Amino acid sequence: FNSIKSENTKRQVQLTFSSTDVHIAKYKNSIYDVQVLSACIYPELLKNQTFPVDVRQRAQTLLDACGERSVGSYTDSSGLNHVRQSVAEFITRRDGVPCSASNVFISSGSQRVMVKLIASGEGDVPTGVLTPVPCRHTLPMMLDFTGVTLEPYMLDKDRGWAVDMNELHRAVNTARGRCQPKAIFISNPGNPTGHVQGRKSIQDVIRFAAAERLLLLVDEVYQEYVFEDAAEFISYKKILFEMGPMYSDTFEMASFHSISSLGECGLRAGYMELVNIEPGVTHFVDTMLCTDISTPVTGQLAIDVMINPPKPGDSSYHTYTKEKEHVKDTLKWNCQKACEVLNNLPGVSCQPVMGGIYLYPCVTLPEETMKQAKVEAGPLYCEQLMQGQAVLIGPGCTRGLPAGTHHFRNSWIKENIVVCII
């Protein structure tokens, strides 16, 4: 991807579909979110009567939770206690299952911490993590960086990128011939595939991971973005506790969420909840987070804003709700129309998307073209689109895919996306 950008600097990018940054897509920030964070950064704004009452009250509450009432002060390595408690209350509301703030960790790199923890085992046998293919494009790099072996399991494209249990069993048995598999990574809603798991699929994955003694790492970052009418986001933790004490009392899991859903991805913060993890391990995670000293405080406050939006009766509620509905309606329309357009392009096919903010089309190019170019079809398609149309998209996952399978990855958050594509 970086090579495609660098090799085409002579032609200025006119459109980019490679990023999920809503600011690049020209979406307006939520007024409430921006006002609260602005007042936290510059408290003099709290004296500004033009800000709604609920904004000023919320900003003051968040500032009171900060050391020295300033976003410039360090926090505990695991995050502000106020924000951790807010996350615990959010999870409890969402799932109907108690969550303790002591099991919540705020970080700009919590997934990396968990992978480092998994990799810290003793012995010469490498550690493996069962990883979906396709997966988010930074995950293989993170596993490589921490010395963990990526053990691929293929999602079933013909069933809308569903998790296939036979494939999971094949993957874990294959992995045991060359490493020690310790965890399985799940993305729900799928990144970049856009699939959303149903209740039975989640139950099957939990049973599989429990039987194989694998730690479950579940990325639930795009939980707010489900657009298929027949689909809904259900958290893994909620399903786990519905399965009864046999699983809910012992099954080990870590779930992740971030402020990417807020549209403020540049603030770099997210949270991790640990479920049924031994206290000694939890302490070790906290210790490892100390290497980052403190997650940026503005990002931590943004988490609190994301999970505690204005309530009915608040001054900002009406405007906030209209803004969010507009964004979701636009994304749903984009999702449907972009799939239609892509499926009408020569050599391109795209599975229907249920959630998330990516499309993952398959591309087929003439064999002779690829032989002459001496490059895979996905990167070649991206390069030619950049050179010919000044449109930037991302190559698809290349590790673990069957030979002859080529994709590209693009987001569909840009308004008027069909006009942009045409």
UniProtKB/TrEMBL annotation:
Pathway field: Amino-acid degradation; L-alanine degradation via transaminase pathway; pyruvate from L-alanine: step 1/1
Keyword match tRNA-binding: no
Domain Aminotransferase class I/classII large: from-to ranges: 52-366
An example Gene Ontology molecular-function term: pyridoxal phosphate binding
Highest taxon of the lineage: Eukaryota
EC number: 2.6.1.2
Cofactor(s) in the UniProt record: pyridoxal 5'-phosphate
One Pfam family it belongs to: Aminotran_1_2
UniProt KW keywords: Aminotransferase, Pyridoxal phosphate, Transferase
Residues passing through the membrane, by range: none
Keyword Transferase applies: yes
Catalyzed reactions per annotation: L-alanine + 2-oxoglutarate = pyruvate + L-glutamate
InterPro entries tied to this protein: ALAT1/2-like, Aminotransferase_I/II_large, PyrdxlP-dep_Trfase, PyrdxlP-dep_Trfase_major, PyrdxlP-dep_Trfase_small
Biological process, per Gene Ontology: L-alanine catabolic process
Top enzyme class: transferase
Quaternary structure, from the entry: Homodimer.
Family indicated by similarity: Belongs to the class-I pyridoxal-phosphate-dependent aminotransferase family. Alanine aminotransferase subfamily.
Protein name: alanine transaminase
Organism per entry: Neogobius melanostomus (round goby)
